[in-house]
User: Which sequence fits this backbone?
């Protein structure tokens, strides 16, 4: 589902606001960062897993909900208990 | 094939069944190389666990927004790997 148009502009710079809308988003980000640093996956595998979410889920999800979905996919596929 | 700054390049078409960093909205469009960014592993290979991945020169390619979307007087610049491109 990646690379589609129609999602509108991405706020950037002073208009962007705080980086996380809720604490859980920061935790998802931190979890992804530490798993990537430990070598469970690389950034392209994370992007690929985001794009492999079922289209209905992808379109209904917020940015970090997609990250969470991708982490569920990657930890299951790579055998993390 | 390598491209100097100023070269006109056309992004390939097609829809690979694996991850790629070639956005759909630039496929088939022609742009201008505005920077050569060095050599980087190909995301298409890294996403699939191909080890070692192909390593290619990456280019910043500038497009007219009006070309891509039919309106807009600004430009859009995308980082694109060499195998995504043909000389225009």
Assistant:
């Amino acid at each position: 589902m990646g690379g589609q148009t129609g999602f509108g502009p991405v706020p950037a710079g002073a208009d962007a606001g705080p980086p996380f809308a809720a604490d859980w988003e920061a935790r998802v980000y931190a979890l992804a960062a530490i798993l990537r640093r430990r070598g469970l996956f690389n950034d392209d595998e994370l992007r690929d897993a985001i794009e492999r979410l079922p289209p209905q889920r992808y379109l209904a999800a917020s940015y970090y909900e997609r990250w969470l979905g991708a982490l569920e996919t990657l930890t299951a596929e790579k055998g993390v208990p | 094939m390598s491209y100097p700054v100023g070269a006109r390049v056309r992004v390939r078409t097609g829809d690979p069944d694996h991850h790629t960093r070639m956005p759909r909205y630039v496929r088939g469009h022609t742009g201008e190389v505005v920077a050569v960014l060095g050599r980087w592993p190909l995301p298409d290979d890294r996403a699939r666990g191909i080890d070692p991945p192909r390593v290619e020169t990456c280019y910043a390619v500038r497009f007219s927004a009006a070309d891509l979307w039919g309106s807009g007087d600004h430009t859009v610049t995308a980082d694109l790997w060499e195998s995504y491109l043909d000389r225009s």
In short: The CA atoms of residues 1 and 17 of chain B lie 25 Å apart.
